[in-house]
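Q: what sequence does this backbone want?
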């Protein structure tokens, strides 16, 4: 019997990238998958890639915060109580503080933080009453350190990091597992769809915080391994990479890390 046997697993942001690869990998197990994203057609494509697995798709725009509770209630009524929630939906952003409209901060925080809080809270009572469950959030290394032109995205990920840490402490006695996984640069369309200062899409992959992108399939396998092993906090990055170097510098040599962040030119790395 596998760790995921007969479990109901809800994955958000499942239409592409890491979310799609998580669905594909988890479809190999005897579990029920619930896939959510805004793009219905892409969700259908993900479902097809999952073969004959028990996959249910529920298109929804998680930025509609006022509708999340009703949406979550419908999903749970249709499918059953959630065993594992994987909060993966999100949007990136790439612009300086001065250039960024305040609405961009609001939009990124809405999807990358507030929607996760709302969806998590909607399934939490069921997990508490059963005294079991697992909540996983896909954060970012930018939730641990920040470079130039990343204040929008990093702010949301820092908030998410704090939320997950607080949640973990509160639900420990209920036997609920809480995991934060933090990828570095992964080769997905997130960079292409990253928001600029005026809210338009960046339109190019942002290779700003790693010298070589990890394949989404590899990242998904690492995340699944972290879920099985109940890693409190797990960094989805290559052993030898700028991301890992920056992570350790920020922890053990913060002054040097700050200097590197000031001088790091992400524009050059995007060429």
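A:
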């Amino acid at each position: 019997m596998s760790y995921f046997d007969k479990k109901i697993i809800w994955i958000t942001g499942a239409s592409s990238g890491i979310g799609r690869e998580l669905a594909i990998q988890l479809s190999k197990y005897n579990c029920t998958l619930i896939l959510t994203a805004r793009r219905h057609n892409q969700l259908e494509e993900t479902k097809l890639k999952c073969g004959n697995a028990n996959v249910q798709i529920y298109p929804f725009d998680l930025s509609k915060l006022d509708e999340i509770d009703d949406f979550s209630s419908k999903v749970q009524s249709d499918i059953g109580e959630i065993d594992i929630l994987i909060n993966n939906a999100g949007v990136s952003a790439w612009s300086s503080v001065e250039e960024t409209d305040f609405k961009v901060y609001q939009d990124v925080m809405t999807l990358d933080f507030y929607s996760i809080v709302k969806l998590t809270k909607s399934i939490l009572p069921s997990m508490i009453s059963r005294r079991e469950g697992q909540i996983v959030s896909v954060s970012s290394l930018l939730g641990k350190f920040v470079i130039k032109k990343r204040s929008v995205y990093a702010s949301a990920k820092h908030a998410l990091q704090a939320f997950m840490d607080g949640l973990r402490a509160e639900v420990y006695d209920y036997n609920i597992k809480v995991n934060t996984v933090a990828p570095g640069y992964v080769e997905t369309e997130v960079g292409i769809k990253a928001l600029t200062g005026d809210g338009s899409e960046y339109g190019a992959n942002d290779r700003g915080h790693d010298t070589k992108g990890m394949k989404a399939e590899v990242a998904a396998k690492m995340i699944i391994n972290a879920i099985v092993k109940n890693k409190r906090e797990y960094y989805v990055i290559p052993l030898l990479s700028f991301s890992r170097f920056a992570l350790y510098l920020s922890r053990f040599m913060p002054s040097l890390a700050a200097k590197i962040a000031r001088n790091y030119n992400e524009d050059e790395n995007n060429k």
